[in-house]
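WARN retry 2 of 3 for item q-0093 after timeout on previous attempt; input resubmitted unchanged.
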Amino acid sequence: MSGEARAPPRGEALAGIREAGMAATNGWGRATWALATAAMLGTSAAHAGVIRGTLEVPSAAPASDLHPYPGRAGSMPSAGTVIGAVTDAVIYVARVPGTPTPAHEGDHPSLAQRQQSFVPRVLAVQAGSSVDFPNFDPIFHNVFSVSPTKRFDLGKYARGHTRSVRFLKPGLVNVYCDIHSDMAAYILVLPHHAFTRPAANGRYALPALPPGPYTVVAWHPDLGEIRRDVQVPAQGDAVVDLRY
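OK item q-0093 returned
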Protein backbone atom coordinates (compact mmCIF):
# COMPACT_ATOMS: atom_id res chain seq x y z
CA MET A 1 0.00 0.00 0.00
CA SER A 2 1.24 3.46 -0.84
CA GLY A 3 2.42 5.54 2.12
CA GLU A 4 2.91 2.44 4.31
CA ALA A 5 6.41 1.81 5.72
CA ARG A 6 7.95 -1.45 4.49
CA ALA A 7 10.73 -3.31 6.30
CA PRO A 8 13.56 -4.38 3.98
CA PRO A 9 13.78 -8.10 3.17
CA ARG A 10 16.02 -10.01 5.56
CA GLY A 11 18.60 -10.57 2.83
CA GLU A 12 18.88 -6.83 2.28
CA ALA A 13 19.11 -6.24 6.01
CA LEU A 14 21.93 -8.77 6.42
CA ALA A 15 23.77 -7.29 3.45
CA GLY A 16 23.48 -3.90 5.12
CA ILE A 17 24.88 -5.33 8.33
CA ARG A 18 27.88 -6.77 6.51
CA GLU A 19 28.47 -3.43 4.81
CA ALA A 20 28.27 -1.60 8.12
CA GLY A 21 30.60 -4.16 9.66
CA MET A 22 33.29 -3.39 7.09
CA ALA A 23 33.41 0.14 8.47
CA ALA A 24 33.87 -1.05 12.05
CA THR A 25 37.62 -0.58 12.19
CA ASN A 26 37.77 1.42 15.41
CA GLY A 27 35.73 2.21 18.51
CA TRP A 28 33.53 4.70 16.66
CA GLY A 29 32.81 2.18 13.89
CA ARG A 30 32.04 -0.64 16.31
CA ALA A 31 29.55 1.48 18.22
CA THR A 32 27.83 2.63 15.03
CA TRP A 33 27.74 -0.94 13.73
CA ALA A 34 26.10 -2.19 16.94
CA LEU A 35 23.30 0.36 16.61
CA ALA A 36 22.89 -0.26 12.87
CA THR A 37 22.69 -4.01 13.45
CA ALA A 38 19.94 -3.60 16.03
CA ALA A 39 17.96 -1.34 13.72
CA MET A 40 18.32 -3.55 10.63
CA LEU A 41 17.25 -6.74 12.36
CA GLY A 42 14.23 -5.10 13.93
CA THR A 43 15.52 -5.13 17.51
CA SER A 44 15.01 -1.97 19.50
CA ALA A 45 17.78 0.55 18.93
CA ALA A 46 16.07 2.58 21.65
CA HIS A 47 17.72 0.23 24.15
CA ALA A 48 21.32 1.05 23.18
CA GLY A 49 23.33 4.16 23.97
CA VAL A 50 26.96 4.96 23.26
CA ILE A 51 29.47 6.58 25.59
CA ARG A 52 31.96 8.58 23.57
CA GLY A 53 34.29 11.50 24.11
CA THR A 54 37.92 12.63 24.12
CA LEU A 55 40.75 11.82 26.49
CA GLU A 56 43.37 14.52 27.04
CA VAL A 57 46.81 13.74 28.48
CA PRO A 58 49.91 15.88 29.10
CA SER A 59 52.54 15.95 26.38
CA ALA A 60 54.21 12.56 26.08
CA ALA A 61 57.96 12.25 26.61
CA PRO A 62 60.36 9.55 25.32
CA ALA A 63 62.24 7.51 27.90
CA SER A 64 64.39 5.06 25.97
CA ASP A 65 66.60 4.33 28.99
CA LEU A 66 63.74 2.97 31.13
CA HIS A 67 64.77 -0.25 32.92
CA PRO A 68 61.74 -1.63 34.77
CA TYR A 69 63.36 -4.99 35.52
CA PRO A 70 67.06 -5.86 36.00
CA GLY A 71 67.45 -8.21 33.03
CA ARG A 72 70.67 -9.76 31.86
CA ALA A 73 71.31 -8.45 28.34
CA GLY A 74 70.65 -5.75 25.78
CA SER A 75 71.30 -7.36 22.42
CA MET A 76 69.92 -4.84 19.94
CA PRO A 77 68.81 -1.19 19.75
CA SER A 78 65.44 -0.70 21.41
CA ALA A 79 62.57 1.25 19.88
CA GLY A 80 62.32 3.06 23.22
CA THR A 81 59.35 3.73 25.44
CA VAL A 82 57.12 6.79 25.09
CA ILE A 83 55.81 7.85 28.49
CA GLY A 84 52.28 9.22 28.69
CA ALA A 85 51.06 8.38 25.16
CA VAL A 86 47.29 8.77 24.90
CA THR A 87 47.02 5.47 23.01
CA ASP A 88 48.35 3.64 26.07
CA ALA A 89 45.14 4.42 27.97
CA VAL A 90 42.28 1.99 28.43
CA ILE A 91 38.76 3.34 28.83
CA TYR A 92 36.02 1.09 30.19
CA VAL A 93 32.93 1.05 32.37
CA ALA A 94 33.31 -0.27 35.89
CA ARG A 95 30.29 -2.56 35.59
CA VAL A 96 27.80 -3.73 32.98
CA PRO A 97 24.31 -4.98 33.86
CA GLY A 98 23.50 -8.66 33.62
CA THR A 99 25.86 -11.52 32.84
CA PRO A 100 28.80 -10.50 30.61
CA THR A 101 29.05 -12.18 27.22
CA PRO A 102 31.94 -14.68 27.35
CA ALA A 103 35.13 -13.85 25.48
CA HIS A 104 35.22 -15.27 21.96
CA GLU A 105 37.58 -18.24 22.03
CA GLY A 106 38.67 -17.70 18.42
CA ASP A 107 39.99 -14.20 19.10
CA HIS A 108 43.65 -14.13 20.14
CA PRO A 109 44.95 -10.61 20.82
CA SER A 110 48.68 -10.27 20.29
CA LEU A 111 51.45 -8.77 22.41
CA ALA A 112 54.39 -8.94 20.02
CA GLN A 113 58.11 -8.69 20.67
CA ARG A 114 59.41 -6.31 18.05
CA GLN A 115 62.58 -4.13 18.03
CA GLN A 116 63.24 -5.26 21.61
CA SER A 117 59.93 -3.81 22.75
CA PHE A 118 56.46 -5.12 23.47
CA VAL A 119 53.93 -3.97 20.87
CA PRO A 120 51.50 -2.68 21.94
CA ARG A 121 52.79 -1.49 25.28
CA VAL A 122 49.28 -1.78 26.75
CA LEU A 123 46.77 -4.48 25.88
CA ALA A 124 43.21 -4.75 27.20
CA VAL A 125 41.40 -8.09 27.02
CA GLN A 126 38.27 -9.68 28.42
CA ALA A 127 38.68 -12.36 31.07
CA GLY A 128 38.78 -15.75 29.37
CA SER A 129 40.84 -14.48 26.42
CA SER A 130 44.06 -16.05 25.21
CA VAL A 131 46.93 -13.74 24.25
CA ASP A 132 49.64 -14.65 21.74
CA PHE A 133 53.25 -13.54 22.33
CA PRO A 134 55.01 -13.81 18.93
CA ASN A 135 58.71 -13.02 18.62
CA PHE A 136 59.58 -10.98 15.52
CA ASP A 137 63.14 -10.12 16.62
CA PRO A 138 66.34 -11.88 15.44
CA ILE A 139 67.17 -12.60 19.10
CA PHE A 140 65.73 -14.72 21.89
CA HIS A 141 63.18 -13.38 24.37
CA ASN A 142 61.79 -14.80 27.61
CA VAL A 143 58.38 -13.35 28.46
CA PHE A 144 57.19 -13.67 32.04
CA SER A 145 55.00 -12.14 34.75
CA VAL A 146 54.88 -12.47 38.52
CA SER A 147 51.61 -10.53 38.87
CA PRO A 148 49.04 -12.15 41.19
CA THR A 149 46.41 -11.87 38.43
CA LYS A 150 48.44 -14.25 36.23
CA ARG A 151 51.88 -15.69 36.83
CA PHE A 152 53.68 -17.28 33.88
CA ASP A 153 57.11 -17.84 32.36
CA LEU A 154 57.20 -18.70 28.64
CA GLY A 155 60.90 -19.57 28.52
CA LYS A 156 63.32 -18.58 25.78
CA TYR A 157 62.16 -18.76 22.18
CA ALA A 158 63.51 -17.46 18.89
CA ARG A 159 62.21 -15.40 16.00
CA GLY A 160 59.22 -16.87 14.19
CA HIS A 161 57.94 -18.67 17.29
CA THR A 162 55.06 -17.75 19.59
CA ARG A 163 53.55 -18.75 22.92
CA SER A 164 50.01 -18.25 24.24
CA VAL A 165 48.60 -17.55 27.70
CA ARG A 166 44.95 -17.58 28.77
CA PHE A 167 43.85 -14.92 31.26
CA LEU A 168 40.89 -16.02 33.38
CA LYS A 169 41.00 -13.52 36.24
CA PRO A 170 40.33 -9.75 35.96
CA GLY A 171 43.17 -7.51 37.03
CA LEU A 172 46.45 -5.97 35.91
CA VAL A 173 49.30 -8.11 34.61
CA ASN A 174 52.79 -6.61 34.36
CA VAL A 175 54.78 -8.32 31.59
CA TYR A 176 58.59 -8.36 31.29
CA CYS A 177 61.40 -10.05 29.42
CA ASP A 178 63.86 -11.96 31.60
CA ILE A 179 66.66 -11.27 29.10
CA HIS A 180 66.14 -7.57 28.25
CA SER A 181 65.68 -5.08 31.06
CA ASP A 182 64.18 -2.36 28.86
CA MET A 183 61.11 -4.39 27.91
CA ALA A 184 57.85 -3.95 29.83
CA ALA A 185 54.16 -4.13 28.96
CA TYR A 186 50.78 -4.18 30.68
CA ILE A 187 47.78 -6.42 30.14
CA LEU A 188 44.57 -5.13 31.71
CA VAL A 189 42.12 -8.01 32.05
CA LEU A 190 38.51 -6.84 32.34
CA PRO A 191 35.40 -8.85 33.28
CA HIS A 192 33.35 -7.69 30.27
CA HIS A 193 33.60 -6.41 26.69
CA ALA A 194 32.80 -2.72 27.37
CA PHE A 195 36.26 -1.23 26.91
CA THR A 196 38.34 0.49 24.26
CA ARG A 197 41.60 2.34 23.69
CA PRO A 198 41.55 5.92 22.37
CA ALA A 199 42.83 6.88 18.96
CA ALA A 200 45.94 9.05 18.52
CA ASN A 201 43.76 12.17 18.72
CA GLY A 202 42.25 11.00 22.02
CA ARG A 203 38.80 10.23 20.67
CA TYR A 204 37.09 7.08 21.91
CA ALA A 205 33.74 5.30 21.81
CA LEU A 206 32.65 2.36 23.94
CA PRO A 207 30.42 -0.43 22.63
CA ALA A 208 26.68 0.25 22.78
CA LEU A 209 25.25 -0.23 26.29
CA PRO A 210 21.77 -0.54 27.81
CA PRO A 211 20.44 2.73 29.24
CA GLY A 212 21.23 3.49 32.86
CA PRO A 213 23.94 4.81 35.18
CA TYR A 214 27.57 3.88 34.61
CA THR A 215 31.01 4.79 35.89
CA VAL A 216 33.53 5.47 33.11
CA VAL A 217 37.11 4.64 34.05
CA ALA A 218 40.27 5.77 32.26
CA TRP A 219 43.38 3.83 33.24
CA HIS A 220 46.91 4.69 32.13
CA PRO A 221 50.14 2.98 33.20
CA ASP A 222 51.94 6.31 33.65
CA LEU A 223 49.10 8.62 34.70
CA GLY A 224 46.92 6.50 36.96
CA GLU A 225 43.13 6.31 36.96
CA ILE A 226 40.27 8.77 36.65
CA ARG A 227 36.53 8.08 37.00
CA ARG A 228 33.40 9.85 35.85
CA ASP A 229 29.75 8.96 36.45
CA VAL A 230 27.44 9.15 33.45
CA GLN A 231 23.84 8.38 32.56
CA VAL A 232 23.49 6.50 29.27
CA PRO A 233 20.29 7.54 27.48
CA ALA A 234 17.81 5.13 25.93
CA GLN A 235 19.03 6.25 22.52
CA GLY A 236 21.95 8.34 21.30
CA ASP A 237 25.26 9.38 22.83
CA ALA A 238 26.51 10.22 26.28
CA VAL A 239 29.54 12.48 25.86
CA VAL A 240 32.21 12.06 28.53
CA ASP A 241 35.40 14.06 27.98
CA LEU A 242 38.27 13.04 30.27
CA ARG A 243 41.44 14.90 31.18
CA TYR A 244 44.53 14.00 33.19
